[in-house]
């Protein structure tokens, strides 16, 4: 019996109904396992020997007991991305709608009462460019017009034959023309391809809750993706497809000039920061892209499949809140 890596995610496991889901050492290990599976999937592996829930539980306990100290994480640079399939498309069975509004609570298991050690060491900030965005900032009306012109160009784009032939429509992005915050995703999923809007599936619903949780409104932030066309089968966009679309997202960002760019998942973070580091290494650090501070966090689609990673995502969002001065009154 085999596990199909293309199969819909299992609904077994922890209740994903709360961003503050319990996060302990075992959760760290499960998260790392998810990253490894994503890496294997990107490497072309489609089937693995079947492991039942009991076996997974047993191995989790054994691995947790033997977990290395954080100093032993010497291969973190090669750690795979957790968002190999983290497009905006919804998982088939995402489970209950997560509520990303509470602070992570301490686990009720005495053995895991202490916060987990970091799995990855933070990396120095990546500075793509410390120079201001090129050109002078435009008046808001001109920004809106320029974005509309760019969206028209994108809608007619056929640079990526495989994507252009399969898409229903392009998904340009949406939001105010002078946002303080931009959330930068990976690629449209099925729902986005149908609607032409970013983040409207289950992952988008979780993202909306995450935005609410940091005292922002979805309408106040700008949402866009690295590539504007849905990759067939919800695969990751290929490097040449990201390169083809780079001009579009870079022009978008140059027009928008946000104070903060939140990269959702490894694909967008690696593309923007021109890095090969995993999301586990890139997160928890403010990087720089021209005038924008860049924070990389786990993609909400990944969080739907790996609820244990929600605590890490919440820590990242708290970091953003603190730096940006976000509070209920803001
Ligand atoms: S992904 Fe971007 S570059 Fe490729 S066809 Fe779509 S709009 Fe064009």
Kindly describe this structure.
By secondary structure, this protein is α/β, with parallel strands linked by helices. It contains 11 helices and 8 strands. The chain has one domain: Uracil-DNA glycosylase-like domain (Uracil-DNA Glycosylase, subunit E). A 6-stranded mixed sheet has the order 3-7-8-6-4-5, with helices on both faces. A two-stranded antiparallel ribbon has the order 1-2. Helix content is 37%, strand content 10%. The structure holds iron/sulfur cluster (SF4). Residues 154, 157-160, 163-164, 170, 227-229, 241, 244-245, 248 line the site of iron/sulfur cluster.
How large a portion of the residues is in β-strands, by DSSP E?
A: 5-15%
Order of helices and strands: EHEHEHHEHHEHEHHEEHH
Looking at the overall shape, the CATH architecture is: 3-Layer(aba) Sandwich
pLDDT < 50 stretches: 1-28, 65-117
- The neighbouring-strand order within the major sheet is 3-7-8-6-4-5
Catalogue the ligands.
Answer: iron/sulfur cluster
Radius of gyration: 19 Å
User: Which geometry do the CA atoms define?
Assistant: globular
CATH superfamily: Uracil-DNA glycosylase-like domain
CATH class category? Alpha Beta
Count of folded domains? 1
From the N-terminal CA to the C-terminal CA, the straight-line distance is: 53 Å
């Amino acid at each position: 019996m085999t596990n199909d890596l293309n199969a819909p995610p299992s609904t077994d496991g922890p209740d994903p109904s709360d961003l503050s889901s319990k996060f302990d050492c075992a959760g760290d290990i499960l998260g790392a396992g998810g990253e490894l599976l994503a890496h294997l999937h990107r490497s072309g592996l489609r089937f693995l020997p079947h492991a039942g829930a009991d076996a997974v539980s047993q191995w989790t306990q054994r691995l947790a007991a033997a977990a290395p100290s954080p100093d032993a994480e010497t291969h973190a640079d090669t750690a795979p991305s957790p968002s190999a399939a983290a497009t905006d498309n919804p998982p088939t069975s995402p489970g209950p709608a997560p509520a990303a509004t509470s602070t992570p609570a301490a686990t009720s298991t005495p053995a895991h009462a202490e916060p987990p050690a970091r799995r990855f060491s933070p990396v120095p900030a990546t500075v793509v460019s410390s120079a201001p965005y090129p050109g002078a900032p435009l008046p808001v009306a001109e920004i809106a017009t320029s974005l509309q012109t760019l969206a028209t160009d994108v809608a007619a784009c056929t640079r990526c034959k495989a994507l252009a032939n399969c898409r229903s429509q392009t998904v340009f992005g949406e939001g105010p023309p002078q946002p303080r915050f931009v959330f930068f995703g990976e690629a449209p999923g099925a729902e986005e391809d149908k609607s032409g809007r970013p983040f409207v599936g289950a992952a988008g619903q979780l993202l909306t809750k995450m935005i609410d949780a940091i005292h922002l409104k979805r309408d106040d932030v700008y949402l866009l993706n690295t590539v504007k066309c849905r990759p067939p089968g919800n695969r990751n966009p290929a490097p040449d497809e990201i390169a083809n679309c780079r001009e579009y997202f870079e022009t978008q960002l140059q027009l928008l000039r946000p104070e903060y760019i939140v990269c959702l998942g490894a694909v967008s973070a690696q593309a923007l920061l021109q890095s090969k580091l995993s999301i586990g290494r890139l997160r928890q650090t403010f990087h720089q892209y021209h005038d924008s501070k860049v924070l990389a966090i786990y993609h909400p689609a990944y969080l739907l499949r790996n609820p244990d990673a929600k605590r890490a995502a919440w820590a990242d969002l708290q970091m953003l809140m603190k730096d940006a001065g976000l509070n209920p009154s803001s």
